[in-house]
Amino acid sequence: MTGTDLFLLVLGWIFVIEGLSPLINPVGWQRMLAHLAEVPPERIRSVAATVVLFGLAVVWLVLD
């Protein structure tokens, strides 16, 4: 498996995982998005930064 194949595989799984919530519970997903629209951008940015750092840590541990 090449690096490109692995990247596309991971990207495909991301799409699958991201699509499960609105597929299984579209009303709950809409409520969550409505609530998210009320959250201050700074809070969203801090949570996103935490998620990115966690993801990078996992990648680093796996590749190490």
From TrEMBL:
InterPro entries linked: DUF2065
Record key words, sorted: Membrane, Transmembrane, Transmembrane helix
Protein origin, superkingdom: Bacteria
A Pfam short name: DUF2065
TM regions (residue ranges): 6-24, 44-63
Descriptive protein name: DUF2065 domain-containing protein
Organism: Sutterella massiliensis
The organism's taxonomic lineage, starting at the top: Bacteria, Pseudomonadati, Pseudomonadota, Betaproteobacteria, Burkholderiales
